[in-house]
Structure prediction request, 369 residues.
Amino acid sequence: MKTRAAIAFEAKKPLEIVELDLEGPKDGEVLVEIMATGICHTDAYTLDGLDSEGLFPSVLGHEGAGIVREVGKGVTSVKPGDHVIPLYTPECRQCKTCTSQKSNLCTSIRATQGKGVMPDGTSRFSYKGQPVYHYMGCSTFSNFTVLPEIAVAKIREDAPFDKACYIGCGVTTGVGAVINTAKMEPGANIIVFGLGGIGLNVIQGAKLAGANMIVGVDVNNDKKSWGERFGMTHFVNPREIDGDLVAHLVALTEGGADYTFDCTGNTDVMRQALEACHRGWGESIIIGVAEAGKEISTRPFQLVTGRVWKGTAFGGARGRTDVPKIVDWYMDGKIEIDPMITHVLSLEEINKGFDLMHDGKSIRSVVVF
Ligand code: NAD
Ligand code: DAO
Ligand code: ZN
Prediction:
């Protein structure tokens, strides 16, 4: 079949909207009609050539929502007509990691997903007879895509696609980092570095879980009102304080935060986040994805004296199990999504979504097919 898609032919070039060939689902795969897709910073990193695993040409996009249109042989958990969210972190429920229940980093299709192909080692997309790579196993910048059955979460049918798509990455990552990774207790003081599409969801997750102080740190003053909108209690612009940021934050939180979250991807900020943790027990969670080749550092004494450095992918969520619950939280009004969708675009306008993100003018741009 044919599908309209935005292709990244090479790094640092705008996406091109073309008609691609898409093969139907093979065994264990499903064909999904994508109804809406969000543009996340991670897509931009890959397009900017900052991601060492970026493959070209590829169909980017990993944050979407749609409807199953066809299923391959052996598929039992979804059927045509089901509403689903694609999962860049699948959940097979059989591999060592899934059965351990210690992590959400399912390994069953890791090797092929990282190579931009389906589990049988081939791509379903092609353009003028040449294969085009899948991206993060999802490729949601296409009106139709093929995914392994274990990489879709079935969701309720009354959830609007143009909002639910954000649960495919940003919402789950931010809220999940607080609930699954930090396992934050009520009354905790937290600091969130970077108040973009991820950081604001950390804030709303912390508010939901009963945080006391929620300090937001961002170099862009426009983010102050955004943070406050979702529960931030204090705002710090590192460029507008006298002296050292870490000392300022430790004083503000009376000894350091119980939990800090890096939502910038900047390795210097990651160090500040660790060192702004409370001596003896503070935990710092890295969410931001750093440029390829970057390293983090701190004095080991920071860890000897009880601070803990952690990281999280997709908020520690087990996609097929947890994503439908987060959709319920949204539909029940426990979490908000609508105000964060600042721009709704057509596929033809997708490059504008990247420009808005680079200029710090959007929280989330969503493309509706
Ligand atoms: P974004 O661009 O919307 O937000 C980043 C924010 O950080 C901006 O508000 C910016 O002003 C602020 N910032 C930049 N430099 C700063 C500094 N030195 N100090 C304080 N604030 C600073 O990006 P996003 O969509 O929120 O994504 C944030 C990060 O999370 C990215 O690195 C992205 O790749 C990553 N991410 C990780 C996961 C995961 O599963 N771990 C999932 C999605 C995204
Ligand atoms: O299982 O080893 C692995 C890698 C899983 C990939 C998870 C990527 C999470 C960080 C990037 C998030 C971007 C949306
Ligand atoms: Zn697994």
User: Anything to note?
Assistant: The mean pLDDT is 97. Residues 40, 42, 62, 89, 105, 110, 169, 289, 313 surround lauric acid (ligand 2) (CB under 6 Å). The CA atoms of residues 349 and 367 lie 8 Å apart.
